[in-house]
Amino acid sequence: MTGISRTHARRILDSRGNPTVEVEITLESGATGRAAVPSGASTGVHEALELRDGGQEWGGKGVTKAVDNVNGEIADAVRGLEAADQRALDERLIELDGTPNKGRLGANAILGVSLAVAKVAAAEAEVSLFRQLGGEEAVTLPVPMLNVINGGAHAQNSIDLQEFMLVPAGADTFDEALRVGAEVFHALKALLHERGFATGVGDEGGFAPDLDSSEEAIEAVLEAADRAGHRDRVAMALDPAATELYEDGHYRFEGNDELGDGMVQYLARLVERYPIVSIEDGLAEDDWTTWRALTEVAGSSVQLVGDDIFVTNPERLRRGIMENIGNAILIKVNQIGTLTETLDTMAMAREAGYACVMSHRSGETEDTTIADLAVATGCGQIKTGAPSRTDRVAKYNQLLRIEEELGDRAVYPGWDAFPRFVR
Question: How far is it, in rounded angstroms, from Cα 347 to Cα 265?
Answer without folding.
Answer: 32
